[in-house]
Amino acid sequence: MSDEEHHFESKADAGASKTFPQQAGAIRKNGYIVIKGRPCKVVEVSTSKTGKHGHAKCHFVGIDIFNGKKLEDIVPSSHNSDVPHVNRTDYQLIDISEDGFVSLLTENGNTKDDLRLPTDDNLLSQIKDGFAEGKDLVVTVQSAMGEEQICAIKDIGPKN
């Protein structure tokens, strides 16, 4: 036993990891999985039978939740795969800046100014048109693995 005192400085937030392990055989369609370091929504799962040398394999097809790219991976069903923690949060839209950033109102009354407008043309035009018409808009922000993006919009009526 030593008499030294050790101080550890943690930069993580309350033990919240960006991903958690889950057995590949337990991951289902419409769930989430990390493929090639990207958080993906699973659109297709097929499982091969156990071969002569061991494991049944799961073939995952996923769509990246941020850029829409299709990714594939094959994992032995008994092995663990990383599953991203995916959160969805609603914020009220306050302003849209000329450089493509949005100003959002958080639940505690602060503003969040670090998000860009979405790249999806349909969603982008809904946000811009609704804002130009003076509507009260609530945007849903999806976040996973340190990335955030506006993924949906709700019109909660005209501004008072």
Automatic annotation (TrEMBL):
<dbReference type="InterPro" id="IPR014722">
    <property type="entry name" value="Rib_uL2_dom2"/>
</dbReference>
<comment type="similarity">
    <text>Belongs to the eIF-5A family.</text>
</comment>
<dbReference type="GO" id="GO:0003743">
    <property type="term" value="F:translation initiation factor activity"/>
</dbReference>
<keyword id="KW-0396">Initiation factor</keyword>
<dbReference type="GO" id="GO:0003746">
    <property type="term" value="F:translation elongation factor activity"/>
</dbReference>
<dbReference type="GO" id="GO:0003723">
    <property type="term" value="F:RNA binding"/>
</dbReference>
<dbReference type="GO" id="GO:0045901">
    <property type="term" value="P:positive regulation of translational elongation"/>
</dbReference>
<dbReference type="GO" id="GO:0043022">
    <property type="term" value="F:ribosome binding"/>
</dbReference>
<dbReference type="GO" id="GO:0045905">
    <property type="term" value="P:positive regulation of translational termination"/>
</dbReference>
<comment type="function">
    <text>Translation factor that promotes translation elongation and termination, particularly upon ribosome stalling at specific amino acid sequence contexts. Binds between the exit (E) and peptidyl (P) site of the ribosome and promotes rescue of stalled ribosome: specifically required for efficient translation of polyproline-containing peptides as well as other motifs that stall the ribosome. Acts as a ribosome quality control (RQC) cofactor by joining the RQC complex to facilitate peptidyl transfer during CAT tailing step.</text>
</comment>
<dbReference type="Pfam" id="PF21485">
    <property type="entry name" value="IF5A-like_N"/>
</dbReference>
<dbReference type="InterPro" id="IPR008991">
    <property type="entry name" value="Translation_prot_SH3-like_sf"/>
</dbReference>
<keyword id="KW-0385">Hypusine</keyword>
<comment type="function">
    <text>Translation factor that promotes translation elongation and termination, particularly upon ribosome stalling at specific amino acid sequence contexts. Binds between the exit (E) and peptidyl (P) site of the ribosome and promotes rescue of stalled ribosome: specifically required for efficient translation of polyproline-containing peptides as well as other motifs that stall the ribosome. Acts as ribosome quality control (RQC) cofactor by joining the RQC complex to facilitate peptidyl transfer during CAT tailing step.</text>
</comment>
<dbReference type="Pfam" id="PF01287">
    <property type="entry name" value="eIF-5a"/>
</dbReference>
<keyword id="KW-0648">Protein biosynthesis</keyword>
<dbReference type="InterPro" id="IPR048670">
    <property type="entry name" value="IF5A-like_N"/>
</dbReference>
<dbReference type="InterPro" id="IPR012340">
    <property type="entry name" value="NA-bd_OB-fold"/>
</dbReference>
<feature type="region of interest" description="Disordered">
    <location>
        <begin position="1"/>
        <end position="21"/>
    </location>
</feature>
<dbReference type="InterPro" id="IPR001884">
    <property type="entry name" value="IF5A-like"/>
</dbReference>
<feature type="domain" description="Translation initiation factor 5A C-terminal">
    <location>
        <begin position="85"/>
        <end position="154"/>
    </location>
</feature>
<dbReference type="InterPro" id="IPR020189">
    <property type="entry name" value="IF5A_C"/>
</dbReference>
<dbReference type="InterPro" id="IPR019769">
    <property type="entry name" value="Trans_elong_IF5A_hypusine_site"/>
</dbReference>
<feature type="compositionally biased region" description="Basic and acidic residues">
    <location>
        <begin position="1"/>
        <end position="12"/>
    </location>
</feature>
<protein>
    <recommendedName>
        <fullName>Eukaryotic translation initiation factor 5A</fullName>
    </recommendedName>
</protein>
